[in-house]
Specification:
Layout: H1 2-15, H2 25-43, H3 48-51, E1 56-59, E2 67-72, E3 75-80, E4 85-91, E5 93-100, E6 107-114, E7 121-125, E8 130-134, E9 147-151, E10 157-161, E11 166-167, E12 184-189, E13 192-197, E14 202-204
Antiparallel strand pairs: 1-2, 2-3, 3-4, 5-6, 6-7, 7-8, 9-10, 10-11, 12-13, 13-14
Amino acid sequence: MIKFLFLLVSVFAFSQNIKPSVITSAEYEIQQKTVQAYDEQVINRIPEQIRKKYERVEKFLPHNDTLFLVIQNKKKGIIDLNGITVVPADHQFIEAHTYETVAPGKYEMYMIGYSDVSVPQRYYSNHGSLIVESYSPFSPSTENGQIIKVGTKDGKIQFFNIPAGKLINNKKYDKAPGSFVNGVLKVERIGNNYLLNQSGLETKIN
């Protein structure tokens, strides 16, 4: 593991035309202990009576001191520093994703909770509100991550605009491969092909 770390540092340094900085195994262990000690301090800011409710509490993301992964009965959830539930502890896995907001270059995080295959994936904002449910795997359809494909219970595809908090239209598509290119995507619905734009407007092409 340490040798691999040295190799990564060296390759990055070479690509940036800078002198590689190599740390010893002892220095690496000290850094890790420092990070762990800091993380424990942050976790201990959560009221003790809240922490005792869960089997385990840990930071959800390395550089985020406000959201925490909790485990209860082998299920995972997310709470904030005050112990308020952001994602209910009834998921097997939780992932973090981002999308670009209406302010260019500014990104917002949201989370997806995965449970049993019979249960839809649930998308939550970083404030804890349920954004949308999907019966198909996570699939962004725009480069900025604002629009995602969501699967319906009957096996169709819809498009959800995360910043707007709503579907781009109420249509259900049978096929929608790929992503939007130059603002449009070819889709199929009831045997007809359309060019769909990001506002939800269709142009029939056959």
